[in-house]
Design goal:
heterodimer; A: 321 residues; alpha/beta; seven-stranded antiparallel sheet; five-stranded parallel sheet; 17 strands; B: alpha+beta; three-stranded antiparallel sheet; binds FE2/S2 (inorganic) cluster
Chain lengths: 321, 346
């Protein structure tokens, strides 16, 4: 295990279109060594050199943790997003040298579980690709329910069905198939842990129903891909480093801070890990908090912000960075 | 050129000693003339050649004797090694980490050869040559954690991370300073730290927990901690208090140099890749006062640190009984001159 670095030099070894929206990318280490072992649910942050700008987006590792000759991620094209997924789809070709982070897991399996019940929506399937591979290797007990818009957008549904057969249940929106959530949640054996990854609406629905049906919160795990949202440009003063910077429409506050040469901590870049938390020294305007880390009180107090996903609208903002 | 392993004991006749080279590499924990409790965590990166940080997992001249002492402790009390059922995968992670690091740092003593899942591990100092299937517990004589920690210096706590907290769910703990795995097993971070005084401002622990839960793979961290022990005993567990507790009344001006030992723990923190757990190796280094004061800077500084230690801390560290005797003895070696900054001897 190397130390002092969180980055890996990789080369894109393959780019495979999966369906009309999703493309899979394969990475190998440039030095030909094995990549670090990881655990199901882990993500890597991919650095994209897009002209002047460096984008850093997190993507779940979807290969088997038992095979680290290569890492694979799947990227869903988002035509109205800030451009990271478009860059991946348009500009990343086999042979391109890239830099990615070491794996980080914020959506880990609870290995005490007697059974793992997994619910995926859309591209939220990716962390479960690795988790099911890990559990299958250890003879673990799991069951995966996967909803997608149409059969042709059921990314990897065929692969999963072939690998795990009846442990996989598919639901297609266009056929009006819907998970019978209450029944599913109320018929699980004691000691079951629930995992959900997908759009925010699905996560909230599942968490709320589970809470109503008496599931302890420690047994409910979720991963939300909160990509930073574009918004109005705004100016920020960084008190510690003495810089004033502009966050433009397509940039996150974290990216703008990084572009100014300040090196703030981060792990998820999705508003869930807490690592980028920053104190607000003063402000005149309103916050658009998009994170899942701070409490509602923190949000109301105006004392803290998570720069990876949150924005600001108003006259002035001074941060302790 | 390999390490020459000493034949020595940590009990009964107490023949433990440091060679002159090992005195110089001792991880002296005081960088200034006073001491205050602090979290003091830093990245665990390779340090200077010849120091205990030359390799991230240190193996030294006491290795064989320490492993023999561990076997004796376990024979008397198997509960010093425990692993809850969901921690087996983390045990394999630890086995890989320790085999890799020991083979990397000391190729003349340890060899790891892998052929897919078939691994061969050769440990020359302990005369072990085993071939096993990685991930298949039935191919080893013990569980993976117990197997490798019977061959690695220091204690090991393996922590499960869930619900934003860390849980002490596995460990091999035979060289501890007065705490017990059997008592702490299954507890979370706040529960097992409950008895520490002066750190009671919860803030310290909340920040430490936040730091630890964010430890990343490939980026271990470390800190030093210290206490004192009478006689070179590795095993100062609560279970054996009746054996070591009374030693504290036996310190006299005549035997201070031989009996009083500074005990330094190098604690490191590593994210484990398969289980996403954290392992917390606690490596214990002992040095008797006679050995320590061969470095004049350390003698002067230790005198000032122990003399000025706040009463609560002295009590917590169990020094109260013999502190006056020790301070008196050390004062004769303190000529009042300035000590240079930093840990190392002059
Ligand atoms: S980087 Fe994780 S919350 Fe901002």
């Amino acid at each position: 295990m190397s130390t002092g670095t969180t980055r890996l030099d990789v080369v894109v070894s393959d780019v495979v279109p999966v369906n009309e929206l999703v493309t899979r990318f394969h990475f190998r280490r440039r030095d030909g060594e094995l990549l670090p072992t990881f655990s199901g649910g882990a993500h890597v942050v991919v650095e994209m050199r897009d002209g002047e700008r460096t984008r850093l987006n997190p993507y779940s590792l979807m290969g088997s943790p038992l095979d680290t000759r290569e890492y694979t991620i799947s990227v869903r094209r988002d035509d109205v997003g800030r451009g990271g997924s478009l860059f991946m789809h348009r500009s990343v070709k086999p042979g391109l040298e890239m830099v990615i982070s070491y794996p980080v897991n914020l959506f880990s399996l609870d290995l005490r579980a007697k059974k793992h019940l997994m619910l995926a929506g859309g591209i939220g399937i990716t962390p479960f690709m690795a988790q099911t591979a890990q559990l299958a290797g250890e003879g673990g007990n799991f069951e995966l329910h996967y909803t997608c818009r149409t059969a042709s957008l059921g990314t990897y549904a065929d692969v999963l069905r072939e690998r795990y057969d009846r442990r996989i249940r598919l639901y297609h929106d266009d056929l009006d198939e819907r998970i019978d959530l209450d029944r599913l949640l109320s018929t699980q054996p004691l000691g079951t842990h629930l995992y959900v990854c997908g759009p925010a609406g699905m996560i909230n629905w599942v968490r709320d129903r589970a809470a109503d049906l008496g599931w302890p919160s420690e047994a409910v795990h979720f991963e939300h891909f909160a990509a930073p949202q574009p918004g109005l440009p705004f100016d920020v003063t960084l008190a510690v480093s003495g810089k004033t910077i502009r966050v433009d429409e397509q940039q996150s506050l974290l990216e703008a801070i990084e572009a100014a040469g300040v090196d703030p901590p981060y792990l998820c870049r999705g508003g869930v890990c807490g690592q980028c938390e920053t104190n607000v020294i003063s402000y005149d305007g309103k916050f658009i908090h998009n994170d899942h880390w701070l409490s509602e009180e923190d949000h109301r107090s105006g004392c803290k912000i998570m720069p990876c996903v949150s924005r600001f609208e108003g006259k002035s903002l001074v941060l302790e960075r | 050129m390999g390490i020459t392993f000493r034949k020595e004991t940590f009990r009964d006749d107490f023949t433990f000693k440091n060679s002159p080279e090992h005195i110089r590499r001792f991880p002296f924990p005081f960088h200034e003339d006073s001491y205050m409790y602090a979290v003091n965590i830093e990245p665990h990166v390779v340090g200077p050649k010849g120091s205990v940080l030359e390799n991230l997992i240190d193996v030294d001249e006491h290795y064989v004797a320490e492993m023999q002492d561990r076997a004796l402790v376990l024979a008397e009390d198997p509960l010093r090694c425990q692993s809850l059922p969901h921690m087996t995968l983390a045990g394999w992670d630890l086995l890989e980490l320790l085999m890799e690091q020991q083979a990397l740092g000391y190729p003349e003593h340890f060899t790891l050869a892998r052929d897919g899942d078939r691994w061969r591990w050769i440990n020359r100092p302990l005369g072990i040559d085993d071939t096993f299937t990685f991930g298949d517990t039935s191919t080893l004589p013990y569980g993976p954690m117990e197997y490798i920690t019977r061959q690695s210096q220091g204690d090991f706590c393996i922590l499960d991370q869930r619900d934003g907290n860390l849980w002490m769910d596995a460990g091999m703990v035979t060289t501890q300073a007065d705490w017990s795995l059997d008592f702490d097993i299954g507890m979370n971070f706040f529960e097992w730290h409950a008895p520490v005084p002066l750190a009671h401002e919860k803030g310290i622990f909340t920040r430490a927990l936040k730091f630890l839960t964010n430890i990343q793979q490939g980026k271990p961290a470390r800190r030093l901690n210290w206490t004192m022990t009478i006689n070179p005993r590795l095993d100062t567990s609560p279970e054996n208090y009746h054996k070591w507790g009374p030693d504290r009344t036996t310190v006299t001006p005549e035997n201070v140099g031989d009996k009083v030992h500074l005990r330094v723990e190098l604690q490191s923190f590593w994210r484990l890749p398969r289980s996403n757990g954290i392992v917390f190796p606690i490596r214990c280094y002992l040095i008797k006062m006679d050995e320590l004061v061969t470095q004049p800077k350390w003698a002067r500084r230790l005198h000032r640190v122990i003399r000025d230690l706040p009463e609560e801390l002295a009590t917590y560290k169990g020094l109260t009984r013999y502190r006056p005797t020790l301070v008196e003895w050390l004062s004769k070696l303190d000529d009042g001159s300035a000590t240079s900054p930093g840990f190392g001897p002059d």
